[in-house]
Amino acid sequence: MRKLSVLTLLLFLLACNAYRPLVEVEAVPGGEWKTKVLPASPQDRSGDPEAGFDFLIHGDYIGSGVPLEIMLSAAPKMPQDKPYERNELNEGIPYFMTAFTAPNGAKVANGNCFTCHAGRVDGELVIGLGDSFSDYERSMVFMGKMMRVGMTMKYNKKKDLQPAAFEDFGNYFRRMAPKIKTTQPGSNPAFRLAEACMMHRDPEDLTYVNKPLYEMWDYNIATDTPPLWHVKKKNTLYYNGVGRGSMPKLLLQASVLGAPDSSHSRTSVEAFKDVYAWLQTLEAPAYPKEIDQDLAAAGASLFSEHCSGCHGTYADEGDTYPNKVVNLDVVKTDRLYADYIRQSGIVDWYNKSWFATSEPKSRFEPTDGYVAPPLDGIWASAPYFHNGSVPTVYQVLNSKARPERWTRSGKSTDYDWEHLGWNYDPEPKKEKWTFDSSVPGYGKDGHYFGDKLSEEERWAVVEYLKTL
Question: Most CB atoms within 10 A, among 87, 111, 224, 383?
């Protein structure tokens, strides 16, 4: 039985991973908007950062999960990184998993936020960095079936607590599994996961419903995972600024993978006020190598002239960040992800749901553009663009240098310190870890703003970006 239990767990781990209008519109000839500032919503900033971090790594916000004894049987096979101290129940549990007690008293385990938001660069695990080495290219349908078979074989539904504690997670995993297979390594299907789970939740009380409440595309569009340290600067969440209103509510969306109902979510959202407070303290990692300060100073002037209007300023006396969304026809990066969200049934569902109708309120409001992100820690967060199609910072600034297909080794130590990003083979001889920008939704084009720079200016900007 141990062999089946370990397999079940390993299969599970692969899965884890008030209205105000737009203002300050910058228009172009003909009346079309070029950029818009997404305004801030009132936020509760009274949370306790220390309590928030503890809830992230020990809290029960997912609500249900795999029996803890299955997790513990597999623990020796798991990564042994220990980036933070764990409580007694979580001793021996990987950093990206959390053990907790389900409402019926069963001990269970599930993924936490660091399943996706802890990544490696140069061999070091960085808490808050998006994991660009996640791989969802294989179908999880068989995994879901094996999980249910394993539960049936190991536990008695009438006598044991574990089957009931697993039921909600099992239901949503079964619905989610066929929807999140990706076509690119490192891409994260978080939006699709939420979409597939919410589709089977009653919007008022978040309980499970068997019949889907809206339709989804068969085609999956995934994204690069953004760093968590950007949250403290942002007025909205997600690449096209669709997430508005209460940040604790928006951040709680991962709970739809297993939370039994809105009563559980009401408790969790209070704790996520503390999580939001912790995110206000999270800082980007400093660039660990030597920086040419004279070249960086020249780059700072160029950045201020050409880039800061959208990406903000970074100075000792304090940063500024404008929270601008850039029109799709202006930024010209692959638009399929933004177009997909605008037509998705999740938008109407969300705006009728517990998330939007109870305090503190959040809502979904898509835009026809992508939000220019903050650039703190940009050196560490390769690959680039919302779809992860560009391997280095240098190529963000030089569109002609971007490869059509590129293969990286899959090792976080294989880092390009000159161009800032991943070393890669531009003529792939294998498929593993190969990104293909010709696949719909994953194009490398757009963001041509750096093309106007000379080569010397471009390298100066790259050097400056190391300082952020």
Answer: 383
* Position 243, amino acid: G
| pLDDT per position as a tens digit, 223-273 | 999 999 999 999 999 999 999 999 999 999 989 999 999 999 999 999 999
pLDDT band at 318 (very low <50, low <70, confident <90, very high): confident
Nearest to 382 by CA among 395, 372, 399: 395
Residue 374 lies in a domain: no
Distance CA 385, CA 444 (A): 8
Which of 238, 221, 194, 129 is closest to 355 using CA atoms?
A: 194
Integer-rounded Cα Rg, in Å, for the chain is 22
pLDDT digits (tens, 9 = 90+) for 362-374: 999 999 999 999 9
Residue-number span of the structural domain to which 218 is assigned? 2-279
Helix (H), strand (E) counts: the chain: 16, 15
The whole-angstrom separation of Cα 266 and Cα 38 is: 27
430, pLDDT greater than 80: no
Give a yes or no: residue 25 inside a domain: yes
Q: What is the pLDDT of residue 4?
A: 35
Q: Is residue 443 part of a domain?
A: no
- Residue 113 gets the label, from left (phi > 0), alpha (psi -120 to 50) or beta, of alpha
Helix (H, G, I), strand (E, B) or coil at 451: helix
Round to whole Å and give the CA distance between 373 and 359.
28
- Count of structural domains, the chain: 1
Give per-residue pLDDT as tens, 293-304: 999 999 999 999
d(CA 157, CA 163): 6
Burial letters for 86-95: b for 16+ Cβ neighbours within 10 Å, e otherwise? beeebeebbb
Which one, of 218, 238, 209, 221, lies nearest residue 347 by Cα? 238
What is the share, in percent, of the chain residues with pLDDT greater than 70?
93
Burial class (CB in 10 A: 0-12, 13-18, 19+), 467: middle
Among 214, 210, 225, which residue's Cα sits nearest to residue 347? 214
119 torsion bin: left (phi>0), alpha (psi -120 to 50), beta (else): beta
Residue 326 lies inside a defined structural domain of this protein: no
CA dist., res. 312 & res. 306, Å (int): 11
Q: Quote the CA–CA distance of 337 and 406 in Å, as a whole number.
A: 21
3-state DSSP assignment of residue 36: strand
